[in-house]
Amino acid sequence: MYKLGLFLAGALSAVATLLGVLLMSAHGFSAREQPGTLERWVARQARALALPKDARQRSNPVPDSPQTLADARAHWADHCAVCHANNGSGDVEMGKHMYPQAPDMRQPETQHMTDGELFFIIQNGIRMTGMPAWGSCSQHDEQDSWKLVRFIRHLPQLSAEEEREMQTLNPKSPDELKEEREERDFLNGESSHEPTEHHHH
């Protein structure tokens, strides 16, 4: 049954690709375009068929606790927020410019998925999207994925205080790090590190 599902998923994916190629002459094959209704439907069906039945039925072994959510918030802020935003909206530069765009994970399309489905996607990624397979990363284990499932369930209730905390945990760009260092040096009364010219008379 799983092999049949993979075959059907591959067939649907091929149909979507063929439709994309046929439309290419009219619209081009650009990631700037938004997926049409048919393409989104085919992609959802392919994703559903590619999920093993036993994966859908798995339950979360990680307890729903304040510590679990704290761990998941930190992990999400450091690894996931760059595409999904701290609040799961996908309303960030990277997420908005993917094809398809990163989904708003607070909405029913994500929230109605089973814990097992969410876990499988985190672990194995989704082909032809920007979603990587975190299960292949040595820094990420199954416990991390199950904790993230708990956090995804919590996204619709995420508080402003939690978002502010997560902002301090988001990765910083080189420019942001430089700006923070210069601000810290200024507040500590340290002058610029540029060499001072000495004039000899």
Oligomer state of the chains in this structure: single chain
Strand percentage, roughly? under 5%
Written as H for each helix and E for each strand, in order along the chain, the element string is HHHHHHHHHH
Separation of termini?
A: 90 Å
Going by helix content, strand content and strand pairing, the class is mainly alpha
Helical amount among residues, as a percent range? 55-70%
Radius of gyration equals 22 Å
Q: Helix count, per DSSP?
A: 10
Q: Can you tell me the overall shape?
A: globular
Tally the beta strands.
Answer: 0
| Low-pLDDT segments | none
How does the major sheet shape up?
Answer: none
Describe it.
- The structure is a single chain.
- With 201 residues, the protein is an all-alpha fold.
- The protein is built from ten helices and no strands.
- The protein is globular.
- The chain starts with a helix and ends in a 14-residue tail after the last helix.
